[in-house]
Amino acid sequence: MDTPTVWLFCGVFLLLTAATVGLRSLLKYTDYGVDPAIIETFRPRIRTWWMLFGLLACASFSPLATVFLFFFLSVTILREYITLTPKSPADHQTLFVIYLLFTPLQFALVGINPDWFLQNTGFTPYQVFSLLLPGYVFLILPGMMAISGDPKRFLERTAKLQLGLIVCVYSLSYVPALLTLDLPKTCPTLEPAPATALNLNLEETVIAMLGGNNGQAVEEHDIASLEEADLTDSPLFRLVPIIDGKHFQLLLFFVLIVQLSDVFQYLWSRASRRYVVAGQINSTRTWEGLLGSMLTTALLGVALWYFTPFPYWWQAGLAAMLVAFMGFLGSMTMSAIKRDRGVGSYGALIPGHSSFLDRIDSLCFAAPVFYHFVWYFAA
Fold first, then answer.
1. How far apart are CA 120 and CA 114, in angstroms?
2. Tens digit of pLDDT for each residue in 114-142?
3. Largest CB tally within 10 Å, which of 85, 170, 243, 283?
4. Residues 193-205: pLDDT tens digits?
5. Rounded CA gap, 130 and 351, in Å?
């Protein structure tokens, strides 16, 4: 990690520390008018944020570790989602293929070096992983479920699995995909040299290998043999994506913006509950909260512009505003599913915690939009 990345991590650490200390201080003043509902709302959130921050800090030392982290989160939230939604014993074979083939394949394509993949296949990983699930798996899954021989609630079961794959696997995979974007001026030393310079360096290398500039002639077959040598040891052809601190700054910027936009929505909604968006879906979400969150998150994005690859400050603010809006849609969508199933949470992986899907539903919905926004304006 470079210096700006370290500073960003330290800032997030101090922010979480202040939130933890502030929450514990509020516990002492519940008898003086402090609403206990606020404390109970933020207590599991802060615990989850500490866990997510710790995992991101550990994963920041390796792009493969980051991909594996989000693969683990994807499998976890997909399990929570499938456990809650209706299914048939005949779907077990299909679920087995989803867990052991399609989900690992999606993240494997995300975590591969785009240059190596393009060199060996003629396609970019984005051309494959962006179409794998919505283009091909969506056609395979209904067929597999039909072969299982159970027609009962077939459409409902199929739609349930497809929505789960889109939200829990496909959309979340765009978060580690941020590490594979070709960000400007991030790896200047790895840019390929011009062909003429490459030929001159090649000839000089052969001369040096044969004894230096001592006037000896260099045979043509010696240069030709070196040109045909295996160059896959070059960093450009490694399987691991070539990244630097700017990529992790972008990743941490995105995660931080998503989580804080959710907090802003809650606080602005509590400040004004006059216009509730959909009371039967989520009584705590208001139009004032959405608007206030989008504006506040945009200001935060502008303040953190330095840690983004955007050339202009307004692009960072617009990206943050879009993230806040998509996070709102994600929270509302997953709340609608919970109300439909008559539960208040997608389950508890750890006693005393909300589920991971409750905490990163906004992340899932905002990731593809943020990825394409960065790709268009900054990559």
1. 10
2. 877 788 788 888 888 899 888 899 999 99
3. 170
4. 444 443 444 445 4
5. 36
In sign, the C-alpha dihedral spanning 22, 23, 27, 33 is positive
- Amino acid letter, 131: L
Name the 3-class secondary structure at 282.
strand
How open is the CA angle 247-68-359, to the nearest 5 degrees?
80
Nearest CA-CA partner of 64 in 110, 101, 98, 95? 110
Burial (CB < 10 A; 0-12, 13-18, 19+), residue 122, is: exposed
pTM exceeds 0.90: no
| 276 bridge partner residues | 286
Phi, psi of 3 (to 5 degrees): -60, -45
DSSP label of 217:
P
User: CA-CA distance, 128 to 106, in Å (whole number)?
Assistant: 9
The type of residue at 305 is W
pLDDT per residue as tens digits for the range 38-95: 666 677 777 777 877 887 877 777 788 888 999 999 999 999 888 877 778 888 888 9
Secondary structure (3-state) at 111: coil
What gap in Å lies between CA 90 and CA 342, rounded to an integer?
24
